[in-house]
Write a structure and sequence with these properties.
The structure holds two protein chains of two kinds. Chain A is an all-alpha fold. Chain A is built from four helices and no strands. The longest helix of chain A has 24 residues. The N and C termini of chain A lie far apart (about 60 Å). In chain B, about 70% of the residues lie in helices and about 0% in strands. The chains are: A mainly alpha, B mainly alpha. Chains A and B meet through helix 2, helix 3 and helix 4 of A and helix 4, helix 8, helix 9, helix 10 and helix 13 of B.
C-alpha cells in the first residue's frame, strides 16, 4: 500500500485521523505476525506506548539527558551567554561527578 | 465495605501472613524448607515496616514538610543540584548504595545456618539500617546537602567531625582490601574467570572512548554495546579455558593476581575518570540491576529448597569460615543488608542534591535500604540452596580442612555435612573450573548457588556459562567499588594533607596526585597482600575487621542523628536512632573485646599471633608457613590495634554526643542547629512527575 504523506492533505484534522489509522493498521499487522493467536490490540498498543516511556526513564537513570536539562536550565537562567557544547559539557560533568563518595560496599 | 475496614483487614492479613512465614522459618526443623517462605516473610516485614514505622517516623519524628523548598530547588544549577523525579532518584540512590557487601556477608554468615543471618537482615534493616539511611538523608537535606563529616562537626563539634573523617578513610581502606581479596580468590587458578575479568578492562576503555569522542554523551547506547561485549567476554572466556595454548597465560597464582589488582587500582586512581572509571561504573550498574532482577525472577519461578539447617553447631564459635560465636559475630559479618554505615555517606552529600520534595525522603531513604536488604535475603537463599557439605567444601580454607581433597571431604563429612570428592569434582566440571575446594571469599559459592538457580530456571545446559557470568558480575562491581574508593581515598588524603602543606591539596597537581594515590593503594594493597599469603584465606581476618569498621561508621551516623534529635527538642523520640545505636555499640564493643582479648587462636588477634610465634620458635611450622609467619604475626598485632582504634572512635563520638545532649538538657549553651531556614517551595506539585 502506498504511504500517505500527511502534508499532502489540506484538511489537517483528516490528515491526523488518516495518520492515526495508518499507524494503527501497521501496529496491528506487526502484532498479528509476532504474537499469532495471542494478539490483542490493547496489549500491543500498551507495549507501543511503553517503549518510548521506558527509553525516557532509562535516559534519565543513566544521566544521558543531562545535557538537555542543562540546556533548558541555561536558556532560562543565563540567556545572554552561549551554552557549552555537548562534548565539553560531558567532559566537565564526568570530572564533577566523580569527586566524592559515589559507590558503596 | 468501607475503605478503612478494607485496609484494616488487608493489613491484618499481611501481618498474619508475615508472622506465619517468619515463625515458619524460625521454628522449622525438617530436612529442607522452601525459599518462597523467605521471600514472603521478607516482603511482609518490609510492607508493614514501610507502611507504619516509616510513616510514623516521617510524620511524628522528622516531620517532613512537603511545602519546604529542598536544596535541589533552592540551588538548582542544572548540574549538581537538580530537582529530579523521585523514581529516578530512587534508582540513582539504590545503584549507589548496593554493592558487593550484601552479597558476600550473608554467604559467610550462612555458616551459622540460615536463621541467624536472615533474622538479623530483616530486623536490622527495618529498625536500624533503613532508619539510619532515612534520618541521615533528611538531616543532610535540611542542611543544604552537607556530608556526614561536616554535619558531625557542625552539630557535635570538632572531635566528632575529625572522628567521622578519619573513620571514613580507614573503613575505605579495609573495604577495598577485603573486596580485592574476594576478587583474587574468585580468579585464582581459573583461566576462564581471569580472562573474562581482564577483558572487562579494554571493554570499559572502549566504551569510555565511545561516550567521550565517538558519540559524546550517548551513555545508553554505549552501555548497551558494552553489556553485549561483556556477555561475549563470558563466552570467550570459555574458549580461552578450552584452548591449551591460551589457558596458561591466565592460570595465575593468588599473589600475581593481587599485584594485578593493586596495579589496576593505582592506574584507575590517576587516569582521567572518563577513560576507565566512569564507563566501568555504567556497565557495572547495568549488570548489577539486571542480575538482581533476574535473580528475583528466577527464585520466584523456581522456588528452590533450602538445604542448610536453621542452626549449625558452629554457633559456638568453631566455624571453619571465620572463628567466633553467634553473638556478636553474625551482627558484624552481615553489615551491609542489615545496617551499613557506608550508606550514610551516600545519603548525605550525594542524594539530597537531587530531591525535588522532602516527602520523597521516606521512599528513597527507607525504601532504598529495604531493597538492599532484600538483595541480602536473596544472597542468603543462593548460599543456602547448596548442599551444606558442598557449601563448606567451597568456603573452608585449606588451612582448616587440609590441602588434599580427601582430607577436606573427610573433615567436612565428620561435621555431619556429607560430601564426596566425586560430587565436588562433578560440580567443578559442570561449572567449568579445575577445583572448587577452598575457594574462600564467598564469591565462588555465591556464583555456584546463583548458577544452580539460574540453571534450573532457565536451562541446565549452560551451568558453566551462568557460573562465570555470576563471577564476572561480582568482579565488575567489586572493581568499581575498588577504583571509586581509591579515588575518594585519594581526595580525602589530599584534603587532609592540604591543611599541612597547601600544594598537596590541589587535586590536579600531578606530584600530589601520584603520592596520595600511591599511599592509598599501598595501604589497602598491604592488607590484600597479607590476605593472599595467609594460609587460612585472609577473609576470616579481614571481613570481621570490615564489618566492625562499617558498624562504627553507622554508629557515627546514628550518634549525629540522635544528637540532632535531642537538640531539636525531640528527646522523647530520640530512641528511634538511639536504640539501633545502643545495639551497635554493644555489638561492636563485644566483637572488639573478643577479637583482642579472646584466648581462642582463631578469634583473638593477640592469641593467634602468640600461638604462631610459639610454633615458629619451636620449629613445628611447615617451611612454607614458617616463611610467611613473621609477616602474619605483625599483621595480627596491627589488626588488633586497628580494632582498638575502631572501638575507641565509636566511643569517642557517642560520649561527645551524650555530652552535647546533657548540656542541652541542662539548658547550657550548645552549638546551634545548622538547619537552613524554611523557604517555601515554588515547584507546582506534579511538575517533575510529568
Amino acid at each position: 500500500m502506498k504511504k500517505i504523506e500527511p502534508e499532502a492533505i489540506p484538511d489537517k484534522k483528516l490528515a491526523l485521523k488518516i495518520c492515526h489509522s495508518e499507524r494503527q493498521r501497521r501496529i496491528r499487522s506487526w502484532s498479528r505476525r509476532f504474537f499469532g493467536r495471542l494478539h490483542s490490540l490493547r496489549m500491543t498498543h500498551f507495549i507501543y506506548r511503553a517503549i518510548p516511556r521506558l527509553i525516557y526513564i532509562l535516559r534519565q537513570l543513566t544521566g544521558e539527558d543531562a545535557y538537555e536539562r542543562y540546556l533548558a536550565h541555561h536558556a532560562e537562567h543565563h540567556p545572554d551567554q552561549s551554552p557549552l557544547s555537548r562534548g565539553d559539557f560531558f567532559r566537565q560533568e564526568q570530572e564533577r561527578k566523580w569527586d566524592g563518595v559515589k559507590r558503596c560496599c | 465495605m468501607p475503605k478503612n475496614l478494607a485496609s484494616t483487614v488487608g493489613w491484618l492479613f499481611v501481618s498474619i501472613l508475615g508472622a506465619a512465614a517468619v515463625g515458619g522459618i524460625a521454628l522449622h526443623r525438617g530436612e529442607s524448607i522452601n525459599a518462597i517462605w523467605f521471600i514472603v516473610a521478607a516482603l511482609c516485614v518490609y510492607a508493614i515496616a514501610y507502611r507504619f514505622y516509616s510513616a510514623w517516623i516521617a510524620t511524628k519524628v522528622l516531620v517532613l514538610d512537603p511545602t519546604r523548598a529542598t536544596p535541589a530547588e533552592r540551588f538548582n544549577d542544572g548540574r549538581d543540584f537538580v530537582p529530579t523525579n523521585r523514581w529516578i532518584v530512587f534508582g540513582h540512590h539504590f545503584a549507589a548504595i548496593a554493592g558487593p557487601g550484601p552479597l558476600v556477608g550473608p554467604t559467610l554468615a550462612a555458616q551459622f545456618g540460615y536463621l541467624p543471618g536472615t533474622l538479623w537482615i530483616l530486623v536490622g534493616a527495618v529498625l536500624g539500617g533503613c532508619v539510619q539511611d532515612m534520618v541521615t538523608l533528611f538531616f543532610s537535606t535540611r542542611r543544604n546537602g552537607r556530608s556526614l563529616g561536616q554535619m558531625a562537626r557542625d552539630e557535635l563539634g570538632p572531635i566528632g567531625g575529625a572522628a567521622a573523617l578519619v573513620g571514613t578513610l580507614v573503613i575505605m581502606i579495609i573495604l577495598i582490601a577485603v573486596l580485592g581479596l574476594v576478587v583474587v580468590n574468585a580468579m585464582k587458578h581459573s583461566p576462564w574467570a581471569t580472562s573474562t575479568v581482564f577483558a572487562t578492562l579494554p571493554i570499559a576503555i572502549l566504551i569510555g572512548l565511545y561516550i567521550r569522542n565517538i558519540r559524546p554523551g550517548q551513555v545508553l547506547e554505549g552501555t548497551l554495546i558494552g553489556v553485549a561485549l561483556l556477555l561475549f567476554a563470558v563466552v570467550a572466556g570459555g574458549w580461552v579455558d578450552h584452548s591449551a595454548a591460551l589457558r596458561g597465560y591466565f592460570d595465575m597464582e593468588g599473589l600475581s593476581l593481587a599485584w594485578f589488582v593493586i596495579g589496576y587500582g593505582f592506574l584507575a586512581a590517576i587516569l582521567p575518570v572518563w577513560l576507565l572509571l566512569a564507563p566501568r561504573d555504567y556497565l557495572s550498574t547495568f549488570m548489577k540491576l539486571g542480575t538482581i532482577i533476574l535473580l528475583a525472577i528466577a527464585i520466584v519461578l523456581l522456588r528452590p529448597e533450602i538445604k542448610m539447617p536453621a542452626l549449625t553447631q558452629f554457633t559456638d564459635g568453631s566455624g571453619p569460615i571465620f572463628g567466633g560465636s553467634l553473638f556478636p559475630f553474625v551482627f558484624i559479618t552481615v553489615a551491609c543488608g542489615a545496617i551499613s554505615g557506608f550508606h550514610s555517606l551516600i545519603a548525605s552529600g550525594t542524594t539530597p542534591k537531587l530531591l525535588a520534595n522532602e516527602r520523597d525522603i521516606r521512599m528513597i531513604g527507607y525504601g532504598g535500604m529495604m531493597l538492599e536488604s532484600f538483595v541480602a535475603i536473596m544472597a542468603m537463599i543462593a548460599a543456602t540452596v547448596l548442599d551444606p557439605g558442598v557449601f563448606f567444601a567451597i568456603n573452608s580454607p585449606a588451612g582448616i580442612v587440609g590441602k588434599e581433597a580427601a582430607d577436606a571431604v573427610a573433615k567436612i563429612s565428620s561435621w555431619g555435612f556429607p560430601v564426596t570428592v566425586e560430587q565436588m569434582n562433578e560440580l567443578a566440571r559442570q561449572m567449568g573450573e579445575a577445583t572448587l575446594f577452598a575457594r574462600t571469599g564467598g564469591a565462588p559459592s555465591l556464583a555456584v548457588g546463583m548458577a544452580s538457580i539460574f540453571g534450573s530456571a532457565f536451562g541446565q545446559s549452560l551451568l558453566a556459562m551462568w557460573y562465570h557470568f555470576a563471577i564476572m558480575f561480582e568482579a565488575i562491581f567489586i572493581l568499581t567499588t575498588l577504583d571509586a574508593g581509591t579515588r575518594v581515598g585519594r581526595f580525602m588524603l589530599q584534603d587532609l594533607l592540604g591543611n599541612i602543606w597547601q600544594p598537596m591539596g590541589r587535586t590536579s597537581w600531578y606530584p600530589s596526585v601520584i603520592i596520595t594515590s600511591a599511599t592509598v593503594v599501598a595501604a589497602w594493597g598491604y592488607f590484600l597482600y597479607i590476605g593472599v599469603i595467609d594460609p587460612n584465606g585472609g577473609v576470616n581476618i579481614l571481613w570481621p575487621l570490615f564489618g566492625m569498621s562499617n558498624q562504627m561508621l553507622a554508629g557515627i551516623a546514628l550518634a549525629v542523628a540522635t544528637g540532632i534529635l535531642v537538640k531539636c527538642g525531640k528527646l522523647k523520640y530520640a530512641w528511634v536512632t538511639g536504640l539501633p545505636l545502643t545495639w551497635l555499640v554493644i555489638v561492636t564493643t563485644s566483637a572488639a573485646w573478643e577479637k583482642i582479648m579472646s584466648t581462642d587462636v582463631r578469634v583473638g588477634f593477640f592469641a593467634g599471633a602468640n600461638d604462631m610465634a610459639a610454633k615458629l620458635a619451636a620449629g613445628t611450622l611447615p617451611p612454607d608457613k614458617a616463611a610467611v609467619a613473621p609477616q602474619l604475626i605483625f599483621n595480627q598485632h596491627l589488626d588488633a590495634w586497628l580494632t582498638l582504634f575502631f572501638v575507641t572512635v565509636i566511643w569517642v563520638v557517642v560520649i561527645d554526643m551524650l555530652r552535647v545532649c546533657l548540656r542541652h538538657y541542662r539548658g547550657k549553651p550548645v552549638l546551634p542547629l545548622a538547619e537552613s531556614p524554611h523557604s517555601p517551595s515554588r515547584l507546582v506539585e506534579d511538575w517533575v512527575r510529568d
